[in-house]
Design brief:
The chain is an alpha/beta fold. Helices cover 31% and strands 19% of the residues. The protein is built from 10 helices and 15 strands. The protein has a 7-stranded mixed β-sheet with strand order 11-10-9-12-13-15-14, with helices on both faces. A hairpin with a 2-residue loop joins strand 1 and strand 2. Helix 1 runs antiparallel to helix 2, helix 2 crosses helix 9 and helix 6 crosses helix 7. The longest helix is centred in the N-terminal third of the chain and has 31 residues. It is globular and about 70 Å long.
Length: 460
């Protein structure tokens, strides 16, 4: 986590501790002055209520406006919603990405059930208790005449449509930067599975948090080494499901959560925190090209940047797809994009476009909200992001299913839910009306398998 998310998390935990202390004091008073057994009943009911309605990690107020600026070539026009139908007077021919800006206010039911807006046969969800500016994603839909029906919320004030033109980036040479195995699939399986010329480079082995492998009789270090080998294999094998051959996939073998430290001390090796390894060549034997880091296997920033420069020179991509450095707070994701940009400064070949993605957020761990298979509304941006153009291509039902199966191939997304999470889902299903897909238990099967994928376009 970066500094901002750490601050948000600390504030969230402090507020929960204060609320818990107040609740305990209230229960004590009830037990003394009302009935000894009543606090026990209230504890059970309070826990059920917490799991149903207060367990989301939301580190901002649902009353905050989302703040987005769009580039000057974005068409921005007022539109009308009359009797539940969207009326657009502007000519939207050629504008592939379309966003509807409006103000949503939750009804009283929308404080307990997820507020959402139905867009034809699509549904896009927002925070319970929402009261602020939000952005619906109309990409791939016929905007004029579209049915727009709010549920557990109402639409207030002016409504605007923002529309942007993009080339089909899948027709250009594409290099995907994946900090970990599964990042490419989560962010862009739909795009790389239909791209004409694509390569994927994965930066880390993904060896940490390997406790489940200790059930095989392994100690912590051996379990981490096994997990690193398995996830490195996943990074090379899973893309074949999307039509990307193994010779188009590169595994660099650096170590999880060490990239930021490497960046601060570029010539110092940083081995794995858990596996005891410090030679990245252990998972490079299947790479289709020789890399600078192969000479000594040292996990240093200088080697990482040199490796990325070599990959860029080899595949000559026109487009780099990499984590959004301002939106995605994961330390390794931020450092990955930093390394990519440094590598580009060393290469004779210069990609023309960055496509930026976010698999994690600072302040909302449920985004994209709502059930799988629906569209992706814009994520919360309480502080305005750079005014990038957006590109939001669509995935049909068949490609969504293929994406779910690609996620199922990833070792890190195959684990079963803990008892606590399983109980939480049962309670939320019964009391809050939430549902999860049958394709997999991990939360990413709900968040990533959608009608849209979403990228920010930054020209270099």
């Amino acid at each position: 986590m970066n500094g901002r998310k750490q601050q948000l998390l600390k504030r969230h935990r402090r507020n929960k501790r204060i609320a818990l202390l107040v609740a305990l004091l209230a229960l004590l008073l009830v037990g003394v002055f009302v009935a000894w057994w009543l606090p026990l009943l209230l504890v059970v009911l309070g826990w059920v209520a917490h799991e149903a309605w207060f367990a989301d990690h939301l580190f901002y107020s649902p009353r905050d406006d989302y703040r987005y600026d769009f580039p000057g070539d974005c068409l921005s026009v007022p539109v009308r919603i009359e009797q539940g139908v969207l009326h657009v007077d502007a000519d939207l021919e050629g504008y592939d990405t379309r966003l509807l800006e409006l103000r949503l206010t939750a009804t009283w039911l929308g404080r307990w059930l997820d507020p959402h807006v139905l867009l034809g046969n699509d549904r896009q969800d927002f925070e319970r208790g929402v009261s602020g500016r939000r952005y619906l994603n109309l990409s791939g839909m016929q905007a004029g005449g579209l049915a727009v029906v709010p549920r557990f919320c109402r639409i207030d004030g002016e409504v605007r449509l923002h529309a942007m033109r993009n080339p089909d980036f899948t027709a250009q040479r594409l290099l995907i930067i994946a900090p970990h195995a599964d990042d490419a699939e989560l962010a862009a399986f739909g795009q790389y599975s239909r791209a004409a010329d694509v390569a994927i480079v994965t930066l880390t082995q993904g060896e940490i948090e390997a406790q489940s492998y200790q059930r095989l009789g392994l100690d912590e270090a051996a379990a981490a080494r096994l997990k690193g080998r398995l996830r490195a294999w996943d990074s090379l094998a899973a893309p074949l499901w999307g039509g990307v051959a193994q010779e188009r996939c590169v595994q660099l073998g650096y170590y999880c959560l060490q990239l930021p430290a490497m960046a601060e001390q570029p010539q110092t090796p940083f081995g794995s925190r858990e596996s005891g390894e410090s030679d990245v060549r252990s998972v490079r034997q299947h790479n289709p090209l020789t890399l600078p880091g192969d000479s000594d296997g040292q996990p240093t920033w200088d080697n990482l940047v040199a490796d990325l420069a070599a990959v860029i020179e080899h595949y000559c991509p026109e487009v780099l797809l990499t984590p959004h450095p301002e939106l995605d707070p994961h330390h390794d994701h931020v450092a990955s994009t930093r390394a990519v940009l440094e590598a580009c400064e060393r290469t004779s070949w210069q990609p023309k476009t960055l496509l930026l993605y976010a698999n994690h957020l600072h302040d909302n761990d449920r985004w994209p909200m709502g059930p799988a298979g629906n569209g992706i509304a814009l994520p919360p941006a309480i502080t305005a992001l750079p005014a990038d153009r957006l590109w939001s291509p669509t995935l049909d039902a068949e490609r969504q299913l293929d994406k779910a199966m690609a996620l199922g191939l990833q070792r890190d997304l195959q684990g079963s839910l803990s008892l606590k999470k399983r109980l939480r889902r049962l309670i939320q299903h019964a009391l809050a009306g939430r549902r999860w897909p049958a394709s997999g238990e991990d939360e990413f099967f709900r968040k990533a398998v959608r009608r849209h994928e979403l990228f920010w376009v930054r020209l270099r």
